[in-house]
Amino acid sequence: MKRNQLLSSLSRLTMTSDDEDGDNEGDPTSSFKNLNALEIAAIADAKRFLSQHIVQKIITAIWSGDIVFWDSLSVHSTKKVRFYNPRTADPFSRLRVPKYLKSWEVLFFCIFLALYYAVLIVRDESRITIPEVILFLWIAAFFYDELSEWLDAGSIFYATDIWNLFDMIMIAIGFTFAILRIIGIVQNKPDLNDLAFDILALEALFMIPRIFSILSLSPAWGTLIPCLKEMGKDFFKYMVLVVVVYCGFLTTFSLVGRNVFAFKSMAWILTKIFYGSAPIGFEIMNQIDPFFGPPLMIIFITLSSFLLMGSLTGMLSNSFSRVITHAKEEYLYVYSVYVLEASTSNRLTHFFPPFNLLALVLFRPWRLFFTADEKFRAGRIMLLKATHWPIVGIIKLYEMYRKPGALEDEFAGFKGPSRSSRRNGRHAIAQKRSASNVGRQTLSPRGRANGQSIEMREDDVDAPTAMEVQLTELNRKIDQLTAAIMAIQEKQASGNDSGSSSTGATPA
């Protein structure tokens, strides 16, 4: 009974609603129709909600594969939240675990980087080499995988992860390189070939950070990334004011000194001054105009070097402080988005890139002429098993030989209560209560009386607030109430048993 209630709660959090609404045109919530509660919380920046202990237990269980959405791989399989049972689950269902998806993603980008270096170091402009052909296939597989992810997650949730912006830029650079490279080879234009390789060189600006995006799982890096994101937003907002001021002074200086400096030359001089080369302005202010040049240049240097740059530095510092103050919530938000993004797909068969190109070539053309049925699904399942069995074998070996007890203590509550008799009910409840209290602050009666310090978790650095103390007291009362209810149930059960036994002993 308790297990069914927990599964029902997880379903409401992690599964989407199947209710259909015929008219969604005027519904402002229609964009969130296919999203579950956790995904909506990520889109709405509900960081405090996502940082709650029970929510993080669910997300971490999804990350590690203790909670799965697919436990079988057949034509009749449906997506449903459930606990993972290694004895009954299909081994190929482990391909959907976010932890393994992200591990393959890192390997995919490492091979991508190796192909990138192989193409640029050789740089054969006369013909397309074998590494280039493989690189083209890698870019195509990367694009198809991102397109599938965007269609599964939706544009709103897809845009939540900042790394998806890196992915789109990498794909755009890759396609630009491929198009220019092919045109340059076909039309024998060395200039286009040079331009293609120069554009491909830009790929490293985004690929190398993308490889190390796995560091977002670390609390230190997972906090810095939101800081940089917020600072970047404030920076671009502030640059609007800078551009307005810059354009005003550029227009004035260009018109006043048009007999001495061209517009392009004046624009470059003011740019140098803005970035700190103030002595250049003092040297040319009399050349611009003996009367208006000096006062205008002094005003511009003062604004750019002191007022604008000082205000920008202070604003960015405030942005950093605002985010770092809630470092734990920011990290858990990044971690939650990282996990939820890998578990949003509603497809039964998910092919890792570049194997997804095989599914695209073999099955997608037939969908244009025939409707999708069980035969298509069975064919995709067969192809998935034929191409991914080595990966599944490595996963099973890892799960077989990994150290036992690594996460069992923290997430033992997700294994579900074991079947026991009514006599052991109180013991089971006590175990569940203790499992739910793992990592939670506790306050002893002596500590409350004497104002002593409270036991804290390792990741907590602040003193407990009044609300936290009240929650701790409430948890203690809930424990007492649970024990009292169990005692009443045991008394009722014993009374029913004695009544039934006495009835059975009475002669007919």
Structure commentary:
Helix 11 packs across helix 15. This protein is 67% helix and 1% strand. The chain contains 20 helices and two strands. Strands 1-2 form a two-stranded antiparallel sheet. With 508 residues, the chain is an all-alpha fold. Among the domains are: 119 residues; 95 residues; 62 residues. It is flat, with a radius of gyration of 31 Å. InterPro entries: TRP_calcium_channel, YVC1_C. This is Calcium channel YVC1-like C-terminal transmembrane domain-containing protein. Keywords: Membrane, Transmembrane, Transmembrane helix. It holds the Pfam family YVC1_C.
Summarize the entry for a quick read.
The protein has helices at residues 2-14, 37-43, 47-50, 53-64, 98-122, 130-153, 155-158, 163-186, 190-201, 204-211, 219-256, 263-274, 278-288, 293-325, 327-341, 356-367, 374-401, 425-436, 445-450, 466-505; strands spanning 67-68, 82-83.
> What proportion of the residues form beta strands (DSSP E)?
under 5%
- Count every beta strand, where a strand is a DSSP E run of 2 or more residues: 2
* Rg, Cα atoms, Å: 31 Å
Largest sheet strand order: 1-2
- Poorly predicted runs are 14-24, 405-463, 503-508
H-E order? HHHHEEHHHHHHHHHHHHHHHH
Helix content: 55-70%
Shape: flat
- Discrete helix count: 20
The largest pleated sheet is described as:
2 strands, antiparallel
Alpha-beta classification: mainly alpha
Mean pLDDT: 78
Cα distance spanning the termini: 37 Å
